[in-house]
Design a protein that fits this description.
By secondary structure, the chain is of the alpha+beta class. The chain contains three helices and seven strands; from the N terminus they run E-H-E-E-E-H-E-H-E-E.
Amino acid sequence: MLTFPICDVRKVIAQGIADALANGGFSDPHLGLSEHDNCKPGLWLVGDHGVYLCSNGKLAEGQKPLVAYAEECNPDVNEDWWDVKRATFGSDDGVDFLSATSLEALFAGTPDGTHLRIAFMTESMQLFIVRKD
């Protein structure tokens, strides 16, 4: 299970919207494989060097995205990040899309929540909100 502070998740969503306004919209989470316009605000859940969230707002040339690392899987502060990544996200690199609209609805449903938790199952993920003091 991985944990992300909701305040950090909201900052990444807001920055992604600002990036999209400045740079021509949002990237398609389905990489053009869908007939529908899927270029809507959201986050990429990225398993790479750690596990982090970044937005799908298009970036200017050379611009780096704002990211929010999972508390348990940040290579800058967790020596065992690789073991955590492998145990949760898996050993391969990858990306999953999370809709900003769906995340905000989840946050609104638990107004006293402070953190987004993501549990990884064999074929799916479960997102839920917790309160950490």
